[in-house]
Amino acid sequence: MPNRTVSFFVLAVWIADLWLLLVWSQRPPNAARSNEQSVPYPAYFSKYILPALPVAKHFDAPVRPPDGAGVSIALGFGEENHLGEDWNTAKGNGDLNEPVYAIADGWVTLAVDFQAYWGNVVMIAHRLPPNDPSKLEAVESMYAHMNTITVKPWTFVKRGQQIGTIGNANGVYKAHLHWELRDSVGEGLGGGFSERTDGSLNPSALLSAPR
């Protein structure tokens, strides 16, 4: 009995250590061990996470993939300082709960209900091919105002996988999908509108770019 008790204790300690290691490995460090300074998340992502991501060689529309048949853009990128595109498939709330899909293979960096003006938001990091015309290592797609979210953060998704449904930010707007594209990962939620477009990309241009 004493030996069996010791074995159970050792096993319990080993499982606890493994759990802590897995939890720690999915979080960016709070400080660099060498100089105790904060490590920028984009740099941490580029060094430790990006190499493990699948290469996104194809991009589809986030609604009615692959080409977004029947979709209209109510407010385009750059219009009225808009940092993304608002996609609709019907008037009013007619497209409420229509499926939203990942535009490419990637890794879910965020899936949160921000309530208020953003509602449910999903962000996905996509690793680009080394010879991509954009000359970027990765991009991050953002899907906002959704009614539901069907993916979890820190998980891999495939191109065309459903990640949620079109919403209206809990009634703040008429139903539509607000989606953005950023040229780096981990820059945060943002405001959706700005005179400065640094860090933002034209979403539709990505879909039409040759690869």
Keywords:
211 residues; alpha+beta; eight-stranded antiparallel beta sheet; 25% strand
Q: What would you say about this model in short?
A:
The protein has helices at residues 2-25, 41-49, 203-208, and strands at 72-75, 85-88, 99-101, 106-113, 120-127, 138-146, 148-149, 156-157, 162-165, 177-182, 200-201. With 211 residues, the chain is α+β, with helices and mostly antiparallel strands.
Q: Can you give a write-up of this model?
A:
Strands 1, 2, 4, 5, 6, 8, 10 and 11 form an eight-stranded antiparallel beta sheet that branches. The N and C termini lie far apart (64 Å). 18% of the residues lie in helices and 25% in strands. The chain is α+β, with helices and mostly antiparallel strands. The protein is built from three helices and eleven strands, in the order H-H-E-E-E-E-E-E-E-E-E-E-E-H. Strand 4 and strand 5 form a beta hairpin.
Task: Show the helix and strand layout.
Layout: H1 2-25, H2 41-49, E1 72-75, E2 85-88, E3 99-101, E4 106-113, E5 120-127, E6 138-146, E7 148-149, E8 156-157, E9 162-165, E10 177-182, E11 200-201, H3 203-208
Antiparallel strand pairs: 1-2, 2-10, 3-9, 4-5, 4-8, 5-6, 6-10, 7-9, 10-11
